[in-house]
Amino acid sequence: TGTLTQNEMIFKRLHLGTVSYGTDTMDEIQSHIISSYAQVHSQSSGNSTSSTPSRKPQSSAPKVRKSVSSRIHEAVKAIALCHNVTPVYESRAGVTGETEYAEVDQDFSDENRTYQASSPDEVALVQWTESVGLTLVTRDLTSMQLKTPGGHILTYYILQIFPFTSESKRMGIIVRDESSGEITFYMKGADVAMSTIVQYNDWLEEECGNMAREGLRTLVVAKKSLTEEQYQDFESRYNQAKLSIHDRTLKVAAVVESLEREMELLCLTGVEDQLQADVRPTLEMLRNAGIKIWMLTGDKLETATCIAKSSHLVSRTQDIHIFRPVTTRGEAHLELNAFRRKHDCALVISGDSLEVCLKYYEHEFVELACQCPAVVCCRCSPTQKAHIVKLLQHHTRKRTCAIGDGGNDVSMIQAADCGIGIEGKEGKQASLAADFSITQFKHIGRLLMVHGRNSYKRSAALGQFVMHRGLIISTMQAVFSSVFYFASVPLYQGFLMVGYATIYTMFPVFSLVLDQDVKPEMALLYPELYKDLTKGRSLSFKTFLVWVLISIYQGGILMYGALLLFESEFVHVVAISFTALILTELLMVALTIRTWHWLMVVAEFLSLGCYVASLAFLNEYFGIGRVSFGAFLDVAFITTVTFLWKVSAITVVSCLPLYILKYLKRKFSPPSYSKLTS
Known about the structure:
Elements: E1 5-15, E2 20-21, H1 26-46, H2 56-60, H3 68-81, E3 86-89, H4 99-105, E4 113-116, H5 120-131, E5 135-139, E6 143-147, E7 153-162, E8 170-177, E9 183-189, H6 191-194, H7 204-213, E10 216-226, H8 228-243, H9 248-259, E11 264-275, H10 279-288, E12 293-296, H11 301-310, E13 320-322, H12 329-340, E14 346-350, H13 351-360, H14 362-370, E15 374-378, H15 382-396, E16 401-404, H16 410-415, E17 418-422, H17 429-433, E18 436-438, H18 443-483, H19 494-501, H20 506-510, H21 520-525, H22 530-533, H23 541-565, H24 572-592, H25 598-615, H26 635-638, H27 641-668, H28 674-677
Parallel strand pairs: 12-15, 13-14, 14-15, 16-17, 17-18
Antiparallel strand pairs: 1-2, 1-11, 3-4, 5-6, 6-7, 7-8, 8-9, 9-10, 10-11
Helix pairs in contact: 1-3, 3-5, 7-11, 8-9, 12-13, 13-14, 14-15, 18-23, 18-24, 23-24, 23-27, 24-25, 24-27
């Protein structure tokens, strides 16, 4: 899902269980925050012994129903404290000596502050708390400071921080309020991880589902107040666990889990991640090109389904079969049977159910899933993504292409036949691991339809032509030797051999890489043309054998023609056959080309010019064997009409049949794109 979205998060909703705030009601939250902090500061200035007497009874008697205002206050404070975000200030001072003073001057200037974090979700949350009045102004390793709407600075000491991992799906932080000395453990994470940690409630699961259906990414925020004794006990156990040599990670996790019990649920946040530009037309183009698209994501089922629908990966009218969670072989069998009865419907399955299905019914599941127009696998771990790619390669024997934008997609990108990485807000891990790197999802259309098409066609033409070029000269040598009682006499001496492979034929052969059968605009307008390429007809055993036969035919004609037509002087056989060979090669390049480019024409004439010019000073190479080193090439003979007509005759016999065959093939079985180009 992250690959299809912009990774620019916007805070959309705050839900407190009984009341929900959307984008249009954020000003209410702001007024609650302003009033509650004004109240706290007026009381703390009036009564210096206790900083927040208004909230004392609540901590001692948690069963009393809190007012909405205090619940909003707690929720916003938790969101402002529980994160891994650092505010950064740009230094505007030009002179290095003034930097320190300049930083002091502009420490809290709002327009100069930017937030940095590993995840864009966290930045969105902190920016939102700033918009409602509670601003994160500084943060270092041991403390962070918040600015209230009234301009007061609240300092919190960071005692412990438990970073987010893809296994735990949550992050926690323990802070101590400088003014009151209260220790609080805040935690936020995915609803799957948090639902078992928070106290019993009847709304969390339902609201998470509602938000996910709107395409929002949800985070559950909770807190737990700790006494000094509780914290000291935890810290000693935690430090001990960190020092253990065996199973350290497990022991540390166990100690942290001892805190994660019966936490007070504060709120549920919803953050929206908008789709990238042109995602829908790109997916539609890929589907029309005959490419099956699967979406593998770590997101929740509802979020994944919502993004699949909004990106038109699954069309609005299409049925969706949501695979029920299965844990046993029997359940998997029943669910697969239910799915088999449905026709032409998209499949949505979670990672756990997929694991069970692949364990017992791998072949049946892959066969059924491959018939679906679209498949969405949600709650997938990075290793599962790679496993699915390998599975498809193994079962379908088809080419796979994996597209990802984050570090969690690297294993999948490396497992696929072709990996495409998108450089985005999540860093460059994916694009560094991939074969191709692009900046936006929409570029995939052009990468496949235009560059993919040209790359395949050109590589096929160039590869086969280079084989033909080598085979034709080998055939001529074989014919020459067999005619002269298999004598081991080289047909072409030194430079002719080198020149043939380099200066005489190199430019036209390599100009084949400029050839294109369909204009880029056409290829993008009619993605159906791509289906032909998947059959692999441009480079196959059949085309290879055709080129081998052409080489043998042409080599034989050129050599026998030269032997039949040579005059009393034996030396002319080399001159005639080599000239005809060069002309044949140049004509064959012209025959292979589908769309002419001015550089191709230049290459053809340049090569011919090089050959004609070299005839003047390469005359000694046109002799045969040691005998004729004295018999130089007769310049007078080259310019005669006999030489010219003999060379032309041999060339015509070797090339004309192929031109006729190509014309007939074009006439009676034209390629699919000929309708569009005419």
